[in-house]
Structures are given as structure tokens and as C-alpha cells.
Amino acid sequence: MKLSFHGQSVIYFEANGKKVIVDPFITGNEQSDLDASTLDVDYIILTHGHADHFGDVVELANRNHATVIGSAELADYLTTYHGVKDVRGMNIGGKANLDFGSVKYVQAFHSSSFTHEDGIPVYLGMPMGVIIEAEGKTIYHTGDTGLFSDMSLIARRHPVDVCFVPIGDNFTMGIDDASYAINEFIKPKISVPVHYNTFPIIEQDPQQFKDAVTVGEVQVLQPGEEVKF
């Protein structure tokens, strides 16, 4: 299985012959090594509606005729306002079996909206984390979230091979809470820090996170690098 990180919270993987991207914030993301105008994807998974996660979803979906998976509200918004035709609206606790594997949404504690040019935010449903199972691997992308104890329940139900966890603080968990989540609740085989250093307000040293984690292996990835299983 090919699984890679591409700045902020963007992950990309290929499984069972399909190409999948999560939270495709590419254009305007100085960390990203991708080009939204040429990227080929079959599926796009969204954790929530903020611009630094929603990103290039409209262009990628319409150009590639890709299926977008997200909250019911995000699905309606994309169809009604952006003409995205192939959408699958889901919600927390729901699971979809697809040709690359399965997607199950779990809770995250954050917010979710998209701000139009007039400055008015549009509510886009609950923020969510996502459990992806494909080719015998279980990936937990927590989305943007604070610390919550039910992460342990999620991990007991779905033992995690790779966890993508935010460390940027201010909008999400910082290093202290993120490392606690990994050590005490999620306990994955591999942890990858995300959602940091994209903007000055979320600048962090990922080595501090690595030093604080005592469970499994921490892989600090540069944009474009793959997880080493």
C-alpha cells in the first residue's frame, strides 16, 4: 500500500488500484508538493469544511469525475453550489464499503464551515475523524480535533496501524495533548504528526512530539514522503 503525506493534513494513498486523497488543501499551501491541476484521483475524503481541508476538492472532483465522501451537509453543499455530481454524504458512525476499502467516520471535536467572499460562514456539518481500512491496514486520520477519551474506544474497535494526528495547537491539539492521545488512547503502530508549520500560528517542532511518544513508532514525514510500513 502506498501512503504519503503532502503538507497540512493532506494524505494520499493507493489501494486496490484506486487513488485516494484526504483533505486536499493544495493550492495556497506552501508546504504541498502536489499540483492540483494535474493530480489524478478516484476518491476524495473530507474530514470537515474548513478551507485548509476543503482545499481543491471542487476542481479535483469535477476534472477527475472523482467521488467525494464527506458529511451530509458537505455533500449537499458541493452538489448545490459547485455542481459536483458524484458525492456520498455520510455521518458519524456510518461505514461505506468501497472498491478501494472501507471508510468509517468517527467523532472529532472541532468546527466545520466554509466562509464565502462576503465573510458569511456556511455550516457544513459535524467535523469528523475517519477510519480507513484497505489492503489489510487500518488508518486513523483524526481530522482536526481536541483531545477526547473516546479515542480509546475508537482504537479498541479498530486497532490502528497508522494514525495521522494534529500537533499544531491553537486550532487543534498541541504536542502535549497529541502525544497523550497516542500514548494513552490510540496506541497505533505508527504515528505521523500533521497540521503544523503551515501558518505561523501553528508552528511546532515535530521532534518534540516524537520525543514525547512512547508507544509504537513516530515517522515525521516531509511533504511527498511515504509511510514506511
TrEMBL record:
Q: Which UniProt keywords apply?
A: Hydrolase
Where in the numbering of this chain does the Metallo-beta-lactamase domain appear?
7-195
Which SMART domains does UniProt cross-reference here? Lactamase_B (SM00849)
* A Pfam family reported for this protein in Swiss-Prot or TrEMBL: Lactamase_B_2
Q: Which InterPro entries match?
A: Metallo-B-lactamas, RibonucZ/Hydroxyglut_hydro, UPF0173, UPF0173_UPF0282_UlaG_hydrolase
Q: Name one GO molecular function term.
A: hydrolase activity
Q: Which family does it belong to?
A: Belongs to the UPF0173 family.
- Descriptive protein name: UPF0173 metal-dependent hydrolase SS7213T_02103
